Amino acid sequence: MYYVYAEKKLIPMSSNQLKPELVFHYFSEICKIPRPSKKEGKIIAYIIDFAQKHNLEYRKDDAGNILVRKPASAGYENKQAVVLQSHLDMVCEKNSDINHDFNNDPIQTYVDGEWLKAKGTTLGADDGIGIAAQLAILASNDIGHGPLECLFTVDEETGLTGAFEMKSGFFNSKILLNLDSEDEGELFIGCAGGIDTVATFAFEPDRVPGDSVAMKLTVKGLLGGHSGDDIDKHRANSIKLINRFLWKGTQLYDLRLANLDGGNLRNAIPREATAVFTTHQDDKAKLILTFESIRNQIYNEWRDAEPNLEITIDDAPLPQFVIDEPTHFDLLNSLYACPHGVIAMSRQLKGLVETSTNLASVKFIQDNQILVTTSQRSAVESAKNDISNMVESVFRLANANIQHSDGYPGWAPNTNSQILEITKASYKRLFKVEPVVRAIHAGLECGLFLKKYPELDMISFGPTIKGAHSPDERLHIPSTQKFWDLLLDVLKNIPENK
């Protein structure tokens, strides 16, 4: 069941009113199933049950990846086998005023004009719409295709775990269609590699100074978005904005930090942040004036790019402790100095971000520690390592401990790809225009697949999704029909075995 937004209210709407009907039917079913990263058990069970009900062969590996096989349709038996691939997990982000449990609650979807949205949460079209398309093909009896493998991977969003842990030989096809792109009319033939750099500060709890008052600073309403795909849009970072005031307040007043919480996910540009701090009661009035001055500056700087930005300061209960002064200074200085955003543009592909870094989150955790998570991306392996080293050096100067993830490889474009030519021809035949062929500044699983299956011929495409990884995520309904039509035409035109 979907809802349509009309006359400022939500009205029930059946899924068969959206086209392609079967795709949206399965997307509606998927939205009922909680599927946070690393907690995909319920959606895995659903896929297995689906395969059993449709008498389809399936297998599951130790990581949780599922492969479902479907024999060729009549007349297509001699076609080369194809594997369709989507990931099962979704980014779980919500607005602070929304009561939603991603481990148990269904996603509340509604139609707003040409867009499908969720009520205050991420929609999960990334990559739920790819899953839905695969299920629609597996369930259909009137679609022409050769031998088909449908691969559903786990934990793409937080670590590409499923792709990392999948063994060579899990699937047999030499052609792979990745259904995890977000711009209809564009065919993707390459992606960035990535690595995470995590800094940990250890602090000593200090007694709250006498004659102190506590205050809470809040930044919210930012657009956020995907730390790869949206990094070139130069959106504000809530951690950078809140730290700007904390740093300046520290220079002017006896400001002592008790807590800082900003961002949630390594692959999302942080949208919200809060800080609790103390200051001497005699400085409160002056500090508020400083806050208002900085707030006005920030509003002026971001009024066009971040129309919903809201920065507030309020009284707060006195905290149990503040962090020690050396760590206070180290943390705020390093957050100010830490690079964020586009570092370099590609000199080979016009308009493509080559290298970037995302200051993703700051969290106070157990055992008197502060965790700062950052994520670096680049289409060039050496540049990826270089920007990671740059971020590391900032936090080492601030006496933090540093850890790097294993990272993942990029997917080097193959302009001579046969499946690229087939897909381009299908697109031009269907829609009378040439598709755009490009690489993406985001981590797709394709790079890892290629490492394990060097002979793979791959392409990635999908419908238009805006605001992925944020509660503003929305799926363009008309583009979903075009995505579906293209997918079916490509399958019909896969070459025969030699």
CATH architecture of the largest domain: 3-Layer(aba) Sandwich
Cα distance, first to last residue? 46 Å
Helix content: 25-40%
The profile of the biggest β sheet is: 6 strands, mixed
Overall pLDDT, averaged? 94
Classified by CATH, the class of the largest domain is Alpha Beta
Give the overall form: elongated
Going across the biggest sheet, name each strand in turn. Answer: 3-4-8-5-9-23
Number of separate strands: 25
Relevant CATH superfamily of the largest domain:
Zn peptidases
Which percent range describes the beta-strand content?
Answer: 25-35%
Task: Catalogue the unreliable spans.
Answer: none
Question: What is the radius of gyration computed over CA atoms, rounded to a whole number of angstroms?
Answer: 24 Å
How many discrete structural domains? 2
Q: What is shown here, in short?
A:
With 498 residues, the protein is α+β, with helices and mostly antiparallel strands.
Can you describe this structure?
With 498 residues, the protein is an alpha+beta fold. The chain has helices at 21-31, 41-53, 125-139, 156-159, 161-165, 238-252, 284-302, 325-337, 381-397, 418-431, 446-452, 477-492, and strands at residues 2-6, 9-13, 57-60, 66-70, 82-87, 109-112, 115-118, 148-153, 175-178, 186-191, 193-202, 205-206, 212-220, 256-262, 273-280, 310-316, 322-323, 341-345, 353-365, 369-378, 401-404, 436-440, 457-460, 465-466, 474-476. The chain has 2 domains: 2-192 and 410-492, Aminopeptidase, CATH 3.40.630.10; 195-404, Alpha-Beta Plaits (2-Layer Sandwich). The protein is built from 12 helices and 25 strands. The strands form 7 sheets. The chain has a 6-stranded mixed sheet. It has a 5-stranded antiparallel sheet with strand order 18-19-20-11-21, with helices on one face. Helix 1 (21-31) crosses helix 3 (125-139), helix 6 crosses helix 8 and helix 10 crosses helix 12 (477-492). The longest helix is centred in the middle third of the chain and has 19 residues, at 284-302. It starts with a strand and ends in a 6-residue tail after the last helix.
